[in-house]
Design brief:
alpha+beta, 264 residues, 5 helices, 10-stranded mixed sheet, 19% helix, 10 strands
């Protein structure tokens, strides 16, 4: 699409990784450090006319990512490699572009993603590990891992997940599809990997908190099934801290890219 000066505008799609510990989430907020604000500042160091970036997922404060997707529009004729390397030079140490490609102007990854995968890491040990601080949730044993796996199976499928969202989430449509929940155990590390079509505010953290509360016998078995039926947040467990949550991948329709992604 040409702009007022006849130059053709195009979109740039970035895959972004970040350590969320020192950010107030993804979405821009005045007066605080956010992923969107930090990235926009770096993009504007190359093209000052970029007015906004469009993210696929609004991760919360403290939540990490290695596969966040963001897009913006520009009339600069810079190849994907140039965008990736140039933006990274202007970004701080805790956020970096992992890949870049060109897409049509106006492309919004939020509305084109097919599925997302979140990975939540538990540090299951009697003592805390300072090297895991704010990168995993320290949970002291005992934790019944067999029960945790059994409880997680109730999440699979298409359900009304109204109970598994924060009070701040006021959307009316609460039906979501969870394709898989995989529990990986390499003690003291336990990873709960959840893949689905979409997630609501705090949904994965409430899912994890509920599974852990069942596994440590603070909630009776079957809590997930009961919460899915009654839609009551009080039927779930705690909201797990953001520390262990990683937005791992977002899959979208890559046929929209106009050229090869760099690096391939």
């Amino acid at each position: 699409m040409p702009n007022d000066e006849g130059r053709v505008r195009t979109g740039v799609l970035l895959t972004l990784a970040y350590d969320g510990r020192d950010f107030h989430g993804f979405a821009p907020q005045p007066g605080v450090r956010t992923i969107a604000g930090t990235l926009l500042q770096a993009v504007r160091s190359i093209d000052p006319l970029v007015d906004q970036i469009r993210g696929a997922s609004r991760t919360d404060a403290g939540v990490h990512a290695q596969g966040q997707l963001v897009a913006f529009d520009t009339d600069k004729t810079i190849p994907p490699k140039g965008w990736a390397l140039g933006i990274n030079q202007a970004l701080p140490h805790d956020v970096a572009v992992q890949s870049a490609s060109r897409v049509a102007a106006g492309f919004n990854p939020r509305f084109s993603n097919v599925r997302k995968t979140y990975a939540y890491t538990l540090h299951l040990n009697a003592v805390r590990d300072p090297l895991k601080h704010r990168r995993a949730w320290w949970v002291q044993p005992p934790l019944d891992l067999a029960l945790l796996k059994i409880e997680s199976s109730a999440l699979i499928g298409t359900h009304d997940f109204a109970a598994f969202r924060s009070a701040a989430d006021e959307r009316e449509h609460t039906i979501r599809t969870i394709e898989s929940v995989v529990i990986e155990v390499t003690l003291p590390r336990v990873v709960i990997r959840v893949t689905g079509s979409g997630f609501m505010h705090n949904m994965v953290r409430i899912v994890v908190g509920t599974l852990v509360d069942v596994a440590r016998k603070r909630l009776s078995a079957g809590a997930v099934g009961r919460a899915l039926l009654d839609g009551d947040r009080r039927s779930c467990g705690i909201t797990a801290p953001p520390d262990g949550l990683l937005l791992e991948t977002i899959e979208c329709d890559r046929s929209v890219t106009l050229d090869a992604t760099w690096p391939s």
